């Protein structure tokens, strides 16, 4: 009886893969005829029916349905890792990064005329004006009080002269005196026109020098204590509405000592129960603009 020997038969790609080949699959085992060798014992005769038949030993140990003999190929693992990495990179770029939504995909498919772009925020200039003032002009903003809750504000050249934050405003008339040449603040005071003394106001505005700018913002009640002399003094400063100013009216005004005509910077809203924005008070007024500096001081 011819003898048999076991010989490992490697797959054809083993010569190319080199040392990695054993990990990509197990070699086939064949029984080959060997003259003069001892016969195999313990094998069924059906397995040795023909001396030329290749006998596989794998059926003797069933393979797991979820695994392959010899384990996965490292080259395949490397290819899988590279594929996953490239997929993640492309997805991150298209999706705009973590938390970025889908803006970049939309940019790829959106036409230029349909693309949505954020409108640039409007630039603000001194005191929040939408446009800069010409040279030799002073930028200002005057806001009256709202009812008896929100205090007035007077801003000049981006400096807040009077406000609730500065704690220098109060019920009545809030007045800031400014040098018309330099734009520097001379003095700022609040005068209670409901329970205060009107003489304090008269002493404040009677001795004004020519060229002094006068900024006025009402708060709550600007007129109960106002008398004829007070109204005439404000009229001489350029006011045309002071003669009609009454209880709880809203009033903002910018005038100057020595003006020839009425000031263009004045707003007035009457207190009326039919048109008041607040219960018992009209709406707050807001006025802004540019005042030319006085070239010489008297």
UniProtKB/TrEMBL annotation:
Compartment(s) of residence? Secreted
Asked whether the UniProt record includes Transmembrane helix among its keywords, one would answer yes
User: Where does the record place the ILEI/PANDER domain?
Assistant: 171-258
Query: Can you tell me where the transmembrane regions are?
Result: 77-97
Q: Give GO MF terms, alphabetically.
A: carbohydrate binding
Assigned keywords, A-Z: Disulfide bond, Lectin, Membrane, Secreted, Signal, Transmembrane, Transmembrane helix
Among the entry's GO cellular component annotations, what is one?
Answer: extracellular region
| Pfam families assigned | ILEI
> So what family is this one in?
Belongs to the FAM3 family.
Q: Quote the protein name from its UniProt record.
A: ILEI/PANDER domain-containing protein
Species name? Monodon monoceros
Lineage, broadest ranks: Eukaryota, Metazoa, Chordata, Craniata, Vertebrata
